[in-house]
Structure formats: structure tokens, C-alpha cells
Write a structure and sequence with these properties.
With about 180 residues, the protein is α+β, with helices and mostly antiparallel strands. The chain contains three helices and five strands. Helices cover about 60% and strands about 20% of the residues.
């Protein structure tokens, strides 16, 4: 899962946004913002196209991020919570002073970028750990399967030896 886009909006007006990859996120983000305002729910997850849009709605401010995978909702939620905490703690970023043309908006793009990269890196580390765990699991299953095959061959060898012994006994009995 990778967070590819994030924004902060006051209602439907995007105050600060950042895309890590190319694409027209703003049109879809505008649609998602309208839906969030209509629902007025604190948290929303909406699948649109190949992206999943996660939102956090606090006091008229919408924190939004787009990710490329619907399976993980924990990382986007943690990202949005962290960004909202930073936004709400900063006295310079109050609703009265924050506008799209404000220099603070440009500065907050850096904050969005920093946290997007941080949460994406954590995901990469987590993905590597998951992959290593899966490889270990496969190794264990393969080892168990090889042990079973060896046991089966051993049993087959014993069975073959007994069959040979019986054939020898039967042959000797016929000759006598």
C-alpha cells in the first residue's frame, strides 16, 4: 500500500495538496470532498478508479489521502490522524489565516510530503518483513513435504523388501 496523494480542504476548497505520482487527483478529490460533506461522517473510505480515498473530517476541515490498495486502512488512518494533529496544533495554520495563496499552504505541502514518505517507507519495511515471513513459511512447508516423501520412500523400500522375501519364500515352497 502506497499513499500517492494527500490534501487538506476547508469544505470543498483545497488548502494544500501534494501528489507523489502523476495523475489528476484533484478532480477525483473534489468529488470525494463533496461526498464527505454530504455524509458528514468523521471517517470515510471511498474506492474511485484504481485508488482508495481515505478521509478524516474534523471541524469542517477534511484531511484526505489516496492509496493504491484497499486492503490496508490502518496506515492511511494513522497518516491522516498525524497530519490533522500537526495541522490543529500549529497556531499559524488557523482557519482564518489559511488560504490556498498563503505561504503557509506551501509550507504545509512539505509536511504532507514528509509524512507521506514516512508512512510509505514504513509500509515498504512492513512489506519486506511480510515477504520474509512468507518465504520462511514456504521453507517450513517444503521441508515438511520432503520429510514426508523420504518417509514414504523408506516405507516403500521396506514394503518392496518384504514383497521380495515373500516371492522368494513362495518360489522355494513350489520347488520343494
Amino acid at each position: 500500500m502506497t499513499i500517492t496523494y494527500s490534501c487538506i480542504a476547508n469544505g470543498r476548497a483545497i488548502l494544500a495538496d501534494l501528489a507523489l505520482t502523476g495523475g489528476s487527483y484533484q478532480e477525483t478529490a473534489a468529488t470525494v470532498l463533496r461526498l464527505v460533506l454530504l455524509r458528514a461522517e468523521p471517517k470515510t473510505t471511498i474506492q474511485m478508479g484504481s485508488f482508495v480515498y481515505h478521509t478524516l473530517f474534523i471541524d469542517g476541515i477534511i484531511y484526505l489521502c489516496a492509496s493504491d490498495n484497499a486492503l490496508d486502512s490502518v496506515t492511511p488512518s494513522a497518516f491522516l490522524k498525524n497530519v490533522s494533529d500537526i495541522f490543529l496544533r500549529n497556531p499559524l495554520i488557523s482557519q482564518e489565516h489559511f488560504s490556498p495563496s498563503n505561504a503557509v499552504a506551501a509550507d504545509f505541502q512539505q509536511v504532507l510530503g514528509k509524512y507521506m514518505l514516512k508512512y510509505n517507507k514504513n509500509q515498504d519495511d512492513s512489506s519486506i518483513s511480510t515477504l520474509r515471513s512468507q518465504v520462511t513459511d514456504v521453507k517450513i512447508v517444503m521441508t515438511q513435504n520432503i520429510d514426508r516423501i523420504l518417509e514414504s520412500e523408506e516405507k516403500m523400500s521396506i514394503f518392496t523388501d518384504r514383497t521380495d522375501d515373500l516371492q522368494t519364500t513362495v518360489s522355494d515352497a513350489h520347488l520343494s
